[in-house]
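Journal club prep — side note

Before the paper discussion, L.F. wants everyone to see what a predicted structure for a comparable chain looks like in token form. Sequence:
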Amino acid sequence: MLDKIDLSQRLEQKEFKMLIKPLEEKLNELQQKIKDIGIPVIILFEGWSASGKGTIISRLRNPLDPRYYNVYPMNRITEDSYMRPYIWSYFTKTPEKGRITILDKSWHRGLFPDSLSKWKLNKEERGSYYEDINTFEEQLTNDRNVIIKFFLHISKSEQKTRFKSLEANPNTKWRVDEKDWEQNKKYDKFTERFENMILKTNTGESPWNIIEANDSLFATVKVYEVLIKILEEKIFEFSTPCEQFREHELTPNQTSILSSVDAAKDISDEEYKIKLAKYQRKVSELCFELYAKRRSVVVAYEGWDAAGKGGNIKRLTQPMDPRAYEVIPIAAPTKEDLSHHYLWRFWHKYPKDGHIAIFDRSWYGRVLVERVEGFCSANEWRRAFKEIKDMERQFVHHGTIVFKFWLQIDKDEQLRRFTARQEDPLKQYKITEEDWRNREKWDLYEQAVNEMLLQTDTDYAPWTIIESNSKKHARIKVLEKFVETLEKNL
């Protein structure tokens, strides 16, 4: 593939100046339209060492309004990156609607030959990275993000010439190291690996654009032309308003998981006291082992209003070192949250290796409250089932242990707790008009929960239903599951 590309194409300076001006004017015009329509754009550059990525990015900035784009050099792998899933570094840098993110090197670096990437991946890990990368791009493009991928291709002789030129200048000598020269010496082997990466991550919605970069002027013009063509197409496509969904829409479902749950399971006070002490002691020990082995944990709590999530979380975290965990209460998304993919805000709270993140409500809001209340379109909540499973698989690929708890109470128990809260001055803040409104939609929510459990229960991130009419029973069951799973995984 790469060896068939004609790298002899060149432009004279005079011709370049004549061509670039109208292209810059057009790109400036398109940036304004992107901003007005609210299209997030990601432009990424990959390629050979010394292929001119920095030069083209610098030229690309000329016509752009600097208030509406960011450039991120991604060649340095920080400690934070190593201690979280590979995709975390990139998902957290995705642009808001109407902004442009330009990446000098991208999420494909983990698939590059070893001397180009600090990520040491074996054959099995490479397979999961291809899956994670394509999934990540699919999630973004489904959410109307535009991803434009460039691979800058140069010949072996041109690369060698550029290395020597850089080394001859004391100010640029540092840019060439042994790994760069190794790439040049093993040019054919690296070509094969690059081609493999391109073929396996070349998709319909985010294809690779190969740029003949032996001549930087020719390469710059071609990058502008490709950018303009894609942006014009996407602006035309996305000028149509997104689907709006404001009515309850639920998929008919013959299976009711919740109807078979006995929410009234209980435990004696004495047994509760003994087991609470036993399991909290084990939680304390296992958390230190988690930290020592650098394994992260993500816990998602979902359940009916007044199901006891707060008290349950309190008993789970009581024995933990407060430096090693964070409880993240999830409320309605902010304006900034809404300007990104809905999973963006959860990636931002992802724990470092050795740490624990506990979500009091989670990404499942997309297929529960957002679905039932009409805060997202039918297309958005339907595709969320796959997106959520894909994200959780990315967590597990990194080595994270995922817990998902659904706290189940029956309708009568919820009414009793609502009434008790309303009558207690110290607990009245816990009950709102929204809680009562949601209760009126119990059947709609129950059907949505049943489908959520069916669609997103996986072997790598299974759901555990917690019978919660008895808060004591619920607390012990969560602690038991937490201890049992950590002991198995560690």
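L.F.'s comment for the group: The longest strand covers residues 146-153. Keep this in mind when we get to the figures.
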